[in-house]
Specification:
The chain is of the alpha/beta class and about 240 residues long. It has nine helices and ten strands.
C-alpha cells in the first residue's frame, strides 16, 4: 500500500513510525511540505529513506504570510523538479491569510507544477469551487483533492475533469467524507493517513493506512484486497512511482 499524503516531519520518532509502516505493508509514503522548514525536512527524509519516502514540496494556506511568500515560492521553484509532487497547496477560506493572497500564491505554485509536469496535492476548505476552477485553468492534468468532504456537485465536476480524491481514516465517522468516497469510482481514489493528524483522539502514523483501507472497503462495499490493489495502482500511476 502507498500512503499518498503524510506530514512525516511532524512525527516525533519517524524512524520507528516507518518501521511500523513497513511491517503493516506500506511500500511508499508521499511526504508533503507546508512551508520552508517542512519542505527542507521532507527533502532530508526523502534522502534518508530512498525508495520508501517520496518528497512533495508545498506552501499550505495556513502557512502563508505576506512577508514569506517570495522565499517560499523561490524554494519550490528551485526544488520542485526533483520532487515527486507539489503539495500540500490550496485554498482555505477559514485560514488567516486573505483570500486574494491565497489565490495569488495558489496560482503561482500551480504554474510551477504545470511547467514541471508534476501532480498536485490540494487542500480545500470552504473553497472547493474556486480551487477546482483554478486547477483546471492552470492546465494541471494530475491533481488529488485531499480528504475531499465538500459538495457532491463540485466533486462531480472534479471527477469529470479526470482528477482524484483521497480517503483518510476519517471515513470511520465523517458523513461528508463517506458520501464523497461513495460517489467517486475506486479508479479515482488514493489512500492516505495525513499523519500525524488526530482521529478520534488517536494520533495517526503511516501504519494507520490499514485503517483507511478497511474503512474504504466498508464504505464502498468492496473486498479489502480489491481496494488495496486498485488504490496502490492508482497511486503508482498518479505519482509516476
Amino acid at each position: 500500500m502507498i500512503d499518498s499524503h503524510a506530514h512525516l516531519n511532524e512525527i516525533e520518532d519517524v524512524e520507528a513510525a516507518l518501521t511500523r509502516a513497513r511491517e503493516a505493508g506500506i511500500t511508499g509514503i508521499v511526504a508533503v511540505g507546508m512551508d520552508l522548514a517542512s519542505n527542507r525536512a521532507t527533502l532530508k527524509l526523502h534522502r534518508r529513506f530512498p525508495g520508501l519516502v517520496y518528497a512533495a514540496v508545498g506552501y499550505h494556506p495556513w502557512s502563508i504570510t505576506p512577508e514569506n511568500v517570495q522565499e517560499n515560492l523561490a524554494f519550490i521553484r528551485e526544488h520542485l523538479a526533483g520532487c515527486t509532487a507539489l503539495g500540500e497547496v490550496g485554498l482555505d477560506y477559514k485560514a488567516k491569510a486573505k483570500k486574494k493572497l491565497q489565490q495569488q500564491v495558489f496560482e503561482a505554485v500551480l504554474e510551477l507544477a504545470a511547467q514541471e509536469g508534476k501532480p498536485v496535492i490540494i487542500h480545500t476548505r470552504f473553497s472547493q469551487v474556486r480551487a477546482h476552477l483554478m486547477v483546471k485553468a492552470a492546465g494541471i492534468s494530475r491533481a488529488v483533492f485531499h480528504w475531499y468532504s465538500g459538495p457532491l456537485e463540485v466533486l462531480e465536476e472534479i471527477l469529470a475533469d479526470g482528477y482524484f480524491i483521497s480517503a483518510t481514516p476519517a471515513l470511520a465517522y465523517s458523513p461528508p467524507h463517506q458520501a464523497a468516497v461513495r460517489a467517486a469510482p475506486l479508479s479515482r481514489i488514493l489512500m492516505e493517513t495525513d499523519a500525524p493528524v488526530v482521529y478520534q483522539e488517536t494520533e495517526s502514523e503511516p501504519a494507520d493506512l490499514v485503517t483507511t483501507a478497511r474503512e474504504l472497503s466498508r464504505v464502498k462495499g468492496l473486498e479489502l484486497s480489491q481496494v488495496v490493489a486498485a488504490t496502490t495502482a492508482n497511486a503508482k500511476e498518479f505519482y509516476n512511482l
